[in-house]
């Protein structure tokens, strides 16, 4: 028989809600890990008193009772797993796994039995329902009646809030059955009663969530936050984790308390209690207990009189009372030397702390993500600028967290941290520009060959060589179009030269006439290369020669199928890693062979580029000549159309007086006098046109008179 049994997708019933997780049974005991909170319940084998197998709503369930009265319920088992569990309990725990079914008669009259922390309502020998008394928040009595109120469960869609029991009177003298029932409930219920004095009080502490200043009173079983508007009582049993985090300014400290279930204020839920302290604040603390009680209860972890920094005292007292470790940042150090990274989450700026087993973000809203619930992380390009990047985390439940506006200098440190923790990295948000910027500041593992980095380096060298080859005639125009800030300087220089040239001429009008065409010429000259650049950006020439591959890429293309056949089912990422390892382990002589092939490919590419550039220049010259010829033809056609229009206009003007002689007839003297009186400043050619149009009109009028 196996020493351990493991079950996935098992549900633990806690305060009326079903929390999924993983259950493991071993020789030492039973371990259940909550998938949502990461909380681990560990039941030692020696503590188990009874095991019950029964049919429940989610299939079959297992109820475990311990010797100190605690009850643990786990649901989600299949009926076929009973034999395996029964044999395991007999062999390792020496317990008989009893089968007990719930009563489904529907009766509401029975007997109440108190066993440990459980209230069981039975009909005969069969239980109808069970109530964990730790779920009870209040217990009130009336005449022959007891009312139980329960803690509200935020995770459940429907919560049971109240149950009333009718207790019939008895004939026994001196014993009130209602009061006896209530006392049995209150002895085990989770009812917070501030009886007695507080162990210690911290005055006016700054709290970020919930916001405000609160007096914190420390009681033996709960924490009391007393503010001007609200009060909160937090049982120590609801505290999951404690964090002590240094602020980036090195002058303040965050003390974070993780809570489950959270504290409530109306519809708002606070899963984290965050206190902010200054490192310079000191305090002298005296516990409201005598030295013997302090030694007996805290076993040397606390003393009656203590002094030191305020944050140290609060964290020390909380650690002793809650009995949980305080989590601090690990070995991570950012670009500035701090143990955190400045970023934004949901439009609020905060600090992201990489821990040894997770990430925590403070403070609005606070987020804690464990490594074991992370599906993958992603380094994505910033949405507004390339000076920053986004860090995305997606959990196994599908929840995504995006921490944005992280400085690019932090990438190397964060990438190395994620890589060292062996988290899955899925860069699905990268673009071409961002890949290059990552390569500039990424500090990846130098021991492993990065095939992608080698490829980008080779392409960068080729681009530089192409830029040097094509810088003979078109380099200045390309630089000018890509650097619009330099254009103003060039224009100013040109205007200065025009101004000096025009100042030598004495006429001011000629000076203005010389400036105007120079300005137009400059604008045309600047726009042409921009247009060409925009056209070149739209798409690459399919006839252009393809860039040569590096020696590594040539080798990889030749051996890719062989690597796939040697490792069936290998992923693309693992294939590139394996190829990098093989290339790194290859001898220098074999690499030289591929280097020669890469050199030959580069020479062929350079030769093809020269031929391509010559051909493209001749083609561009031809297109320019054809454009000029086309423009000339269009100009000539336009001139002919204008002449025809003028001729038709003159004909219409000569024919119209013949139709209306009494209204529009003009004599030669009238026309000449009109021209001279109204147009003294007109040009001679316009006067000649006016006179030339007269003879046909006079002839027409003469013929009309005949």
TrEMBL record:
Keywords: Chromosome, DNA damage, DNA repair, DNA replication, DNA-binding, Nucleus, RNA-binding, Transcription, Transcription regulation. Residues 545-613 bind DNA. Residues 532-544, 634-645 have a biased composition (Basic and acidic residues). SUPFAM superfamilies: HMG-box, PH domain-like. GO terms for biological process: DNA repair; DNA replication; regulation of chromatin organization. It comes from the Eukaryota. It is found in: Nucleus, Nucleolus; Nucleus; Chromosome. Residues 474-496 have a biased composition (Acidic residues). Component of the FACT complex, a general chromatin factor that acts to reorganize nucleosomes. The FACT complex is involved in multiple processes that require DNA as a template such as mRNA elongation, DNA replication and DNA repair. During transcription elongation the FACT complex acts as a histone chaperone that both destabilizes and restores nucleosomal structure. This is FACT complex subunit SSRP1. It comes from Balaeniceps rex. The lineage of its organism: Eukaryota, Metazoa, Chordata, Craniata, Vertebrata. The gene is Ssrp1.
């Amino acid at each position: 028989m196996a020493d351990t049994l493991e079950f996935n997708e098992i549900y633990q019933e806690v305060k009326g809600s079903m929390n999924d997780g993983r259950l493991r049974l071993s020789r030492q005991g039973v371990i259940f890990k909550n998938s949502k909170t990461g909380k681990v319940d560990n039941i030692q084998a020696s503590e188990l008193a009874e095991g019950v197998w029964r049919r429940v709503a989610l299939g079959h369930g297992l109820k475990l009772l311990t010797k100190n009265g605690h009850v643990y319920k786990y649901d989600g088992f299949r009926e076929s797993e009973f034999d395996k569990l029964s044999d395991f309990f007999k062999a390792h725990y020496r317990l008989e796994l009893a089968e007990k079914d719930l009563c489904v008669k529907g009766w509401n009259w029975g007997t109440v039995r108190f066993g440990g922390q459980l209230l069981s309502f039975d009909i005969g020998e069969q239980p109808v329902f069970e109530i964990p008394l730790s779920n009870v928040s209040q217990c009130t009595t009336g005449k022959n009646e007891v009312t139980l109120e329960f803690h509200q469960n935020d995770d459940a869609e429907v919560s049971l809030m109240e149950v009333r029991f009718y207790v019939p009177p008895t004939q026994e003298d001196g014993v009130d059955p209602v009061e006896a029932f209530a006392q049995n409930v209150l002895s085990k219920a989770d009812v917070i009663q501030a009886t007695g004095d507080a162990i210690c009080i911290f005055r006016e502490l700054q709290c970020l969530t919930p916001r405000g200043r609160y007096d914190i009173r420390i009681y033996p079983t709960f924490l009391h936050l007393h503010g001007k508007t609200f009060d909160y009582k937090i049982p120590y049993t609801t505290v999951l984790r404690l964090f002590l985090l240094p602020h980036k300014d090195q002058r303040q400290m965050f003390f974070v308390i993780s809570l489950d279930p959270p504290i409530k204020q109306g519809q708002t839920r606070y899963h984290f209690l965050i206190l902010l302290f200054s490192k310079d604040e000191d305090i002298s603390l005296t516990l409201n207990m005598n030295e013997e009680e302090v030694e007996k209860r805290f076993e040397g972890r606390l003393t009656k009189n203590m002094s030191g920094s305020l944050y140290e005292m609060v964290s020390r007292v909380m650690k002793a009372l809650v009995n949980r470790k305080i989590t601090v940042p690990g070995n991570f150090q950012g670009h500035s030397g701090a143990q955190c990274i400045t970023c934004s989450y949901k439009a609020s700026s905060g600090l992201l702390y990489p821990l040894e087993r997770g990430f925590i973000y403070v403070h609005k809203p606070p987020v804690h993500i464990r490594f074991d619930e992370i599906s993958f992380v992603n380094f994505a390009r910033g949405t507004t600028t390339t000076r920053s990047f986004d860090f995305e985390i997606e959990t196994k439940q599908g929840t995504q967290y995006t921490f944005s506006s992280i400085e690019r200098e932090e990438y190397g440190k964060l990438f190395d941290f994620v890589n060292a923790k062996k988290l899955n990295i899925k860069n699905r948000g990268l673009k071409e520009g961002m890949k290059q910027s990552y390569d500039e500041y990424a500090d990846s593992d130098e021991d492993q060959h990065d095939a992608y980095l080698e490829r980008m380096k080779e392409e960068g060298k080729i681009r530089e060589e192409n830029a040097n080859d094509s810088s003979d005639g078109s380099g200045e125009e390309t630089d000018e179009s890509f650097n619009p800030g330099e254009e103003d300087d060039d224009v100013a220089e040109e205007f200065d030269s025009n101004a000096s040239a025009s100042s030598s001429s004495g006429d001011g009008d000629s000076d203005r006439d010389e400036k105007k065409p120079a300005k137009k010429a400059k604008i045309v000259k600047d726009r042409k290369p921009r247009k060409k650049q925009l056209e070149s950006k739209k798409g690459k020439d399919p006839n252009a020669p393809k860039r040569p591959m590096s020696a590594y890429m040539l080798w990889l293309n030749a051996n890719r199928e062989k690597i796939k056949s040697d490792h069936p089912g290998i992923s693309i990422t693992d294939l590139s890693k394996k190829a990098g390892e093989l290339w790194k382990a290859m001898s220098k002589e074999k690499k030289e062979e591929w280097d020669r092939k890469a050199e030959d490919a580069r020479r062929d590419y350079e030769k093809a580029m020269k031929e391509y550039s010559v051909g493209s220049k001749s083609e561009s010259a031809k297109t320019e000549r054809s454009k000029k010829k086309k423009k000339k033809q269009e100009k000539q056609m336009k001139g002919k159309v204008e002449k025809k229009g003028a001729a038709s206009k003159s004909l219409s003007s000569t024919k119209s007086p013949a139709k209306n002689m009494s209204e529009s007839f003009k004599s030669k003297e009238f026309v000449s006098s009109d021209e001279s009186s109204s147009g003294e400043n007109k040009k001679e050619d316009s006067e000649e046109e006016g006179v030339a149009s007269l003879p046909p009109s006079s002839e027409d009028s003469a013929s009309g008179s005949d």
